[in-house]
Amino acid sequence: MRTRVGYTGGSQPAPIYERLGDHTESLQIDYDPARISYETLLGAFWKDADPTERPYSRQYMAAIFYADESQKRWAFATARQAMAGRSGPLLLPILPLATFYRAEDYHQKYYLRRYTDLMREFSAYSEREFEDSTVAMWLNACVDGQLKLEGVAAELERFELSEADRRRMLKLAQVALAHRRR
Length: 182
Fold this sequence. Notes:
Mean pLDDT: 88
Radius of gyration: 18 Å
Structural class: alpha+beta
Number of domains: 2
CATH superfamily of the largest domain: Peptide methionine sulphoxide reductase MsrA
Number of strands: 5
Low-confidence stretches: none
Distance between the termini: 29 Å
CATH class of the largest domain: Alpha Beta
Largest sheet: 3 strands, antiparallel
CATH architecture of the largest domain: 2-Layer Sandwich
Helix content: 40-55%
Number of helices: 7
């Protein structure tokens, strides 16, 4: 799975952070549907999203952008499940995906970039390799407080890594989590 930060949903071509126009700051997730379903990703989204909350602003609104009719159906089906037991209308936007514009490098893995000791692990990576790195994604989630050590350990079990590589990854996650607690 790869994640990248960017902008979508607006009319201005080639937005940048300083000139975002009517775009929304977004997270693009590239995933393998043989390993994780779109429905599962939506379930994770709805754990933190309130479907009845009116967006604060276009730039920072929570939204789902769907790429095709199947994703649209899943988005609305899971929205209905998220609405169960709530009063009021669905206010969280579910919109067709327009062009996704990749955000500037300094926005990619933003939390991880603050820690030079962790960033040394990626010194040989190009900017795109760093952005696409699953390890960088996990460590960024750790220092942001979104992923616990148990989550990293569970993910590592799914990969065919040597015991040495698994230990190294767990150590990096521990370092990232120690940063988070400071």
